[in-house]
Design a protein that fits this description.
This protein is mainly alpha-helical and 219 residues long. It is built from 13 helices and no strands. This is Tellurite resistance TerB family protein.
Length: 219
């Protein structure tokens, strides 16, 4: 078989290429790699090390370290930062004050009728909670009117949710509820579920509100 034929067979059909007279397979030169393919190949570690960017300046490293520490500290105390227990109605706008007063009245109406008829009932404690939240005379009048003519509950809950005051309304319900008031505690649990408050936030607010509830008067 001619030498040219054996080389062609070795290139296209290596297994079918016959050996030469000495029993050796014909040497086939390695195909050249196109330049565009060479550019697409990944760099070797040595070449990548030579092209590596210089290290960042010291002040940039310090900024990243401080930023990481600040973010970690904020995440650990985000509930106290975003949802402070010390609510102050004077820090809210008129609409927010009105909504929280209406929610306080709704929470007071969730107490049993027997409790409201007794001394230091839910309505009296609602007035005390309002005063601790920084409510003034106008807020007290609004609370008294809301206790007599309450706002429709579905519309009120939706307005509170849209205003982003769900956690504040839950805190007001916690401050009003007693330790053994099952009905009021069930109402507070409903508010937590209605406003989709995270379980971690609910536990934190419950812990911080435990020592600030308005206690019932001894009967």
């Amino acid at each position: 078989m001619p030498l040219a034929t054996r080389r062609l067979l070795a290139v296209f059909f290596p297994a079918a290429a016959p050996p030469d007279e000495a029993g050796r397979m014909p040497a086939v030169p390695a195909p050249a790699v196109p330049p565009d393919l060479m550019a697409a190949l990944p760099e070797l570690p040595e070449a990548a090390a030579r092209r590596r960017a210089p290290p960042p300046p010291p002040y940039r490293v310090l900024q990243e370290k401080l930023g990481t520490k600040l973010l970690h500290a904020w995440l650990q105390n985000r509930h106290q930062t975003l949802f402070p227990l010390a609510l102050n109605l004077r820090n809210l706008d008129a609409e927010g004050r009105h909504l929280l007063v209406e929610m306080l009245a709704a929470s007071a109406r969730m107490a049993s009728p027997q409790e409201n008829q007794a001394g230091n009932g839910a309505e009296e404690r609602a007035a005390l909670v309002l005063s601790t939240l920084g409510g003034g005379a106008e807020d007290a009048e609004r609370l008294a009117a809301a206790l007599q003519q309450p706002h429709p509950l579905p519309e009120l809950l939706e307005a509170v949710r849209a205003a982003g005051l769900g956690a504040q309304a839950y805190v007001a319900a916690l401050l009003l509820a007693g330790r053994n008031a099952r009905l009021e505690r069930s109402w507070a649990d409903y508010l937590a579920a209605r406003f989709a408050l995270p379980a971690e936030l609910v536990l934190d607010l419950e812990r911080r509100a435990a020592s600030r509830r308005i206690r019932r008067m001894a009967r």
